[in-house]
Amino acid sequence: MTTDPAAPPIAVLAGASGFIGTALADDLAAEGWRIRRIGRDGPDARWGDPEAIRRAVDGAELVVNLAGKSVNCRYTDANRDELLRSRVETTRELREAIAAVAAPPRLWCNASTATIYRDALDRPMTESDHEIGAGLSVDIARNWERELFADELPVTRRVAMRITIVLGDGPAPQLLLRLARFGLGGPQIDHWWPAHRRYRGIGPDPSGSGRSPWHDSRGRQLFSWIHLDDVIGAIKFVRDRDDLAGPINFAAPDPVGNRELMRELRDAVGAPFGLPAPRAVLEPAMWALRTEPELVLKSRWVLPERLLAAGYEFRVPTLRQAVRSMV
């Protein structure tokens, strides 16, 4: 527990080994924050060790939880269960630790996902005007946030970061750049495909029909994104604004269509053309890459209503700037 007012403030980062967590830890450390890390291998606390987690959060000013298995995988039964467990159980362990300590953190920012919203081609999803979707990814997000906001934590302000696809030196954007370099940077086009059950609902109250959907988007699906610099910037902005709590969309104000996204990627890598990828091509290709077509076919149209209303100024507000910074 921190008692010296001159001591550096403490930030607890869970899941700090990923590309967001690593960048956030470096940024906070440069500001003079002392970093405590929680993960499968510590170093300050490990999941499944409640006493160590309590010691880590006691006296901290800020807790940021980014833990969870990567969605860049095939949704096998084992992976589906781990996608849910790795988010819900780690969030529960943090909540129980925060509730038990003498000096709980002032702010807890917990990762969530903008995939909680339905496939949207007709209108954007904001915090105040949206529709929750159905199926596996949505159910993971619902149970994740339910665990975050359970019970009373009177001292700790809680924020669910509904994060869109993060652009930077991470696995998803680098995969898109490789596709563009190899001449596969055309639009990804959904169409009818035999239904499967990998995207069926999960958890105590699973949603949806259980069958995989398809949408006649014709490459017009929306791509909502945020640059890594703005993930860090928005966390620090929320940290310094005591009036912000609850779900917050971490999304740039410049969502684009899939065709525009792929055109920007082709331009950035100097690819003269990009072959379109209908779902009949994507399904076997994504099977070979051990990932899911949903990651590029779902239309995510998400706007950062609350961040903009609070006065946050995006460091990387346009897709062109974001893509150029990735190359």
Structure, explained:
The chain is of the alpha/beta class and 327 residues long. It has one domain: 3-Layer(aba) Sandwich (Rossmann fold), CATH 3.40.50.720. It contains eleven helices and 13 strands. The strands form four sheets. Strands 3-2-1-4-5-6-11 form a seven-stranded parallel β-sheet, sandwiched between helices. A two-stranded parallel sheet has the order 7-10. Strands 8-13 form a two-stranded parallel ribbon. Helix 1 links the parallel strand 1 and strand 2 (34-39). The protein is globular, with a radius of gyration of 20 Å.
Which characteristics define this entry?
two-stranded parallel ribbon, Rossmann fold, 13 strands
Condensed summary:
The chain is α/β, with parallel strands linked by helices. The chain is built from eleven helices and 13 strands.
- DSSP strand count: 13
Q: How much of the residues is beta strand, in percent?
A: 15-25%
Distance between the termini: 43 Å
CATH architecture: 3-Layer(aba) Sandwich
Largest sheet data: 7 strands, parallel
CATH topology: the name is: Rossmann fold
Query: Can you identify the CATH class?
Result: Alpha Beta
Placed side by side, the strands forming the largest sheet appear as 3-2-1-4-5-6-11
Q: Taking Cα atoms only, what radius of gyration do you get, to the nearest Å?
A: 20 Å
Structural class by SSE content: alpha/beta
List the helices and strands and how they pair.
Layout: E1 10-14, H1 19-30, E2 34-39, E3 45-46, H2 50-57, E4 62-65, H3 77-100, E5 107-113, H4 136-148, E6 157-163, E7 165-167, H5 171-181, E8 188-189, E9 222-223, E10 225-227, H6 228-239, E11 246-250, E12 256-257, H7 258-269, E13 277-278, H8 279-289, H9 294-297, H10 305-310, H11 319-326
Parallel strand pairs: 1-2, 1-4, 2-3, 4-5, 5-6, 6-11, 7-10, 8-13
Antiparallel strand pairs: 9-12
Helix pairs in contact: 2-3, 3-4, 5-7, 7-11
